[in-house]
Amino acid sequence: MEMQGSKQLAITQQQAWDALNDPEVLKLCIPGCDSIEATGEGAYALVNAIKVGPVSAKFKGSLQLADVQAPSSYTIHFDGSGGAAGFGKGSAQVTLTPNEGGCELGYAVNATVGGKIAQVGQRLIDGVARSMAESFFKRFEEEMQRRHPAAAAEAPAVEPATGGVPAWVWILVAIAAILGVAWALR
Q1: What is the pLDDT of residue 124?
Q2: Beta partners for 37?
Q3: Which of 56, 83, 131, 145 has its CA 20 to 30 A from that of 151?
Q4: Are 3 and 167 in contact (CB under 8 A)?
Q5: Other Cβ atoms closer than 10 A to 36
Q6: β-strands 102-114, 87-99 pairing
Q7: Residue ranges, the chain, pLDDT below 70
């Protein structure tokens, strides 16, 4: 599965970078996230509850960050297993580009799923991915407005740009979409 797109954020590039590096922010924003913990330099462990059609499972996953160019980009390599429900693995390239309205978060995800979760069909997986990503972005925007009310009030009204089903995003993104792993930047 390949997904790409972008999202306009009403915060600065540095604020977005800092938030995406904060496991507590990610835990609040990733739908179904039970835990996300740093396990080493640029490495994280995540536990996330996922339901795709009739298949429900707790996925245990890991994230490894690479090609980190703070505060503008990184690559996330991820894999996770939900036991008999299946697995997911892949990578996501994430960019943060400053602009007049704050910054734009861009992403491109390449992910593979297998096991029972893959048997429910691509259309259902894509629908769940879209719903989880929308939920992540809504929660993330609400949390950023709570943490940075001045940035949200000062940002001009900008329509978000979308170019497909967000992943991982973390995540963001097949991460958020399939494994619910969102984004960890560092």
Answers
A1: 78
A2: 45
A3: 131
A4: yes
A5: 24
A6: antiparallel
A7: 151-186
Q: Considering only CA atoms, which of 144, 127, 186, 123 is closest in space to residue 16? A: 144
Give yes or no for a contact between 136 and 32, defined as CB atoms under 8 angstroms apart. Answer: no
- The type of residue at 67 is D
Structure tokens belonging to residue 54: 């009739």
CA angle 114, 42, 85 (to 5 degrees): 20
Output the DSSP codes for 68-123.
Answer: EETTTEEEEEEEEE-GGG-EEEEEEEEEEEEETTEEEEEEEEEEEEESHHHHT-HH
Task: Find all residues with CB under 8 Å of 102, minimum gap 6, and list them.
Answer: 8, 9, 10, 11, 12, 13, 16, 151, 155, 158
Query: Which residue is associated with the tokens 């299946």?
Result: 86
pLDDT value, residue 37: 92
- The whole-angstrom distance between residue 94's C-alpha and the CA centroid of its chain comes to 9
CATH of 2-179, one of 3.30.530.20, 3.30.60.50, 3.40.50.720, 1.10.3470.10: 3.30.530.20
Tokens, residue 176: 């958020």
Q: Quick one: which of 154, 61, 60 has its CA closest to 102?
A: 154
Q: What is the pLDDT of residue 183?
A: 30
CB atoms within 10 A of CB 44: 23
CA distance linking residue 46 with residue 44, whole number of Å: 7
- Whether the Cβ atoms of residue 125 and residue 60 lie closer than 8 Å to each other: no
